[in-house]
Amino acid sequence: MTAERIFNFAAGPAALPEPVLVRAQAELLNWKGLGMSVMEVSHRGADFVAYAEQSELNFRSLLSIPDNYKVLFLPGGATLQFASVPLNLTQPGDSADYVLTGSWGKKAKSEAERYITVNVAADTAASSYTTIPPVAEWALSPDAKYVHYTPNETIHGVEFHDIPDVGDTPLVADMSSTILSRPLDIARFGVIYAGAQKNIGPAGLGIVIVRDDLLGHARRETPGIVDFKTMADSDSMWNTPPTFAWYLAGLVFDWLIEEGGVQAMEQRNSAKAAKLYACIDASDFYTNRVDVHCRSRMNVPFTLKDPSLDQRFLEESKAAGLANLKGHRMVGGMRASIYNAVPEAAVDALIGFMQDFEKRVG
Ligand SMILES: *Cc1c(COP(=O)(O)O)cnc(C)c1O
Predict the structure, then answer these.
(1) Scanning 81, 98, 238, 269, which has its CA 20 to 30 A from the CA of 216?
(2) Pick from 203, 228, 258: which residue ends a domain?
(3) What per-residue confidence (pLDDT) applies to 336?
(4) CA nearest 208: which of 234, 183, 179, 181?
(5) Catalytic-residue membership of 107
């Protein structure tokens, strides 16, 4: 690790792979020998179009995306998709099922309610979002146009480790904080979307993977930039796409391929998470309240036995080169986000610090 960089456990915008930043820096002034940066070239020029196409191919190969799915690179992060999904998949009067296992699912639901009737099929608010009920207990409705869920709840640290079986209703997933962290059976989904700033690249960019039979059914008033078909037909260049974010995402895909793809990421990520949860569970000083079967491999919230020590923990961890461990205000305590770009050495350093801190003040 470069001397002036520290371990970054931020939830998002989050750590990027250091080799990606080094390469972006090296290419910044003169991209592909053009004598200008990638930010300064036309998105319709041959160089950027070729780069964009290759980045999509790499993304498709990383996730083994079947040919009957389109991949879109869109502005607006994940939040725009909270509205795009109902605008593309429903007509006035329709309804959809939402499964709420944390705050992001709740936010997706509120946005959808501008357009449709939302049936809450499951809601774990009563557990303070620390569990996932079995699909057999979900109140799915037969006329739902889709079922929406959040495979990894970034704030509460709750992750589905299996894809729920909802029959023939299209399954829609907000994968912002778990995409590319492990292999994925894309064919089980109707729509997958993700904001980039956790596991893909810079904030602002969103990626949508949509099954092609779901294209072309948007409401009449759907803005073009939100209409999956309009964007698919124009290779995500109906407007000027966020080219620099797209470029950086492409560098992240190159890095992932070099590192062994999502299979290698899954191994690393499970090893990183297992160590950190083992450290928490071995102590009476640290606690993670999420049910073991649905603990997140990406976001690990934990509390200290005595919350009056939180500030000291944060100050001392920062001084030890471990940044952004403060938990979300809704949950309190700490949260270590350990996405693909956070190396195992960072987790080892965190565990070392936690054990030492407990010994000194616990
Ligand atoms: C971060 C996050 C979002 C919001 O992403 P934006 O890019 O800010 O729109 C939505 N859903 C999940 C699960 C997230 O982690």
Answers:
(1) 98
(2) 258
(3) 98
(4) 179
(5) no
Q: How far is ligand 1, taken at its centre, from the CA of residue 44, in Å? A: 29
Do 339 and 279 belong to one domain? yes
Domain stops at, among 232, 258, 284: 258
Retrieve residue 338's tokens: 């350990």
Q: Same domain for 236 and 265?
A: no
Assess contact for 9 and 337: CB atoms under 8 A.
Answer: yes
pLDDT profile of the chain (362 residues), mean per 10: 83 97 98 98 97 98 98 97 98 98 98 98 98 97 97 98 97 98 98 98 97 98 97 97 98 98 98 98 97 98 97 98 96 97 98 98 88
Residue closest by Cα to atom 7 of ligand 1: 77
DSSP β-ladder status, 322-323 and 7-8: parallel
The DSSP-derived string for 114-147 is TTSEEEEEEE-GGGTS-----GGGS---TT-S-E
Q: Return the ∠ at Cα 206 (arms to 8 and 106), rounded to 5°.
A: 80
